[in-house]
Amino acid sequence: MSTVQNLPVAVSLSYFSASGGSGPTGSPYDVLLDSARLGDEAGLEAVWLPERHFADFGYLYPNPSVPAAAVAATTSRIGIRAGSVVMPLHHPARVAEEWAVIDQLSGGRVGVSFASGWNGSDFVLSRSDVSERRQVMREGIEAVSALWRGESRTFPDASGRMIELRTYPRPVQSELPVWLTAGGSVGTFELAGSVGANVLTHLVGQSPEDLRDNIAAYRKARQTRGDGRGHITLMLHTHILDGSRGSADRVQQELARYLTSSMKLDERNVADAERAAAFRSLNTADRETIAMLGASRFLDFGLICTADEVRDRLAEVDAWDVDEVACLIDFGFEYGPIMKSLEELLGVLS
Questions:
Q1: What pLDDT digit, counting tens, does each position of 214-255 carry?
Q2: DSSP states of 192-261 as a string?
Q3: Does residue 169 have a cis bond before it (omega within 30 degrees)?
Q4: Under the phi-then-psi rule, with left for phi > 0, alpha for psi from -120 to 50, and beta for the rest, what region is 258?
């Protein structure tokens, strides 16, 4: 398959599914592995793997490093990135070790986006208070990056004694490419710029206009730091339509089902107590209405469009000053429709 050509932005694949579609071999990971191989052959930028716990929404990805190892072993060129590692749930040394293994397996193709976490259930895995999650994330990123470079860091052992450690194996890349995962908070964009990180973001909680403003704040923070423009990756729901009304209706229904499932997570949002309370108070009819409105919005702003519209949609995203689109390709369909859509997308990009 020929490589992608003359695109206004880089294109990646991203996985944040409510379910997994089984392929001919019958595994829910067939979508991931087969689509990653296609993206690798086509010359796409990267594969992004999430971290999700204790819910059927995204249940295939409790630790992004595990499927990342499988992708590393079955591809040769495509970047392999965590989108995201929820830093307060992990010891920095463990993160450095796991992703160094993947960097070795992949020949130096790793990148990690870090998040502070927001799903209350996840914090049963954390050794820190949820109120400290942002500070824990910042300190964790610094520690992981230092260990990645081969520096030593001091940590308490089981008795409380402080010991100095270096992590192994050594990665291929001398520096870990780092992203911060951001919603609509300008403060997170500015923080990413001020520490020289890239940004992984989405359109949940921010309009395209908000996103442009947040990116401008990020670029300014990078400029103040004297560290170039940085890199913005935007996750967008993606599915190629055949142009019929039936195709659009089916996608809207599947996306609405996906969004309804995601509301279970919103009820546990420790980063926004008011939002969590509002979602807990919704009845079934309210949830369905919100989901359908959300699905309509993503039909307007995402890569849910016909093949002929793909490049125009990418040009529109480029006008928002985005550097990379991470295509969310698996929001409820089974294996066949997902792979058919991806093949049509890659046909347009080649």
A1: 999 999 999 999 999 999 999 999 999 999 999 888 888 888
A2: HHHTT-EEEE-STT--HHHHHHHHHHHHHHHHHHT-----EEEEEEEEEE-S-HHHHHHHHHHHHHHHHH
A3: yes
A4: alpha
* Helices (H) then strands (E): counts for the chain: 11, 11
pLDDT tens sequence across 25-67: 788 899 999 999 999 999 999 999 999 888 877 789 999 999 9
Q: What are phi and psi of 302, to 5 degrees?
A: -95, -165
pLDDT at res. 321: 98
Measure the CA–CA gap between 245 and 266, rounded to whole angstroms: 31
Is 275:268 a contact under the CB 8 Å cutoff? no
In 3D space, the residue among 135, 145, 59, 127 whose CA is nearest the CA of residue 90 turns out to be 127
Question: What is the predicted pLDDT for the residue at 9?
Answer: 97
The pLDDT, as a whole number, for residue 255 is 85
CATH of 10-244+305-349, one of 3.50.50.60, 3.20.20.30, 1.10.3720.10, 3.30.9.10: 3.20.20.30
First to last CA, the chain: 8
**Cα 36 from chain centre:** 15
Running DSSP on this structure, what letter comes out for residue 269?
Answer: B
Do 325 and 338 form a contact (C-beta atoms < 8 A)?
A: no
List Cβ neighbours of 282 (8 Å cut-off, separation of 6 or more): 263, 290
Q: Would you say 145 and 176 are in contact if contact means Cβ atoms under 8 Å apart? A: yes
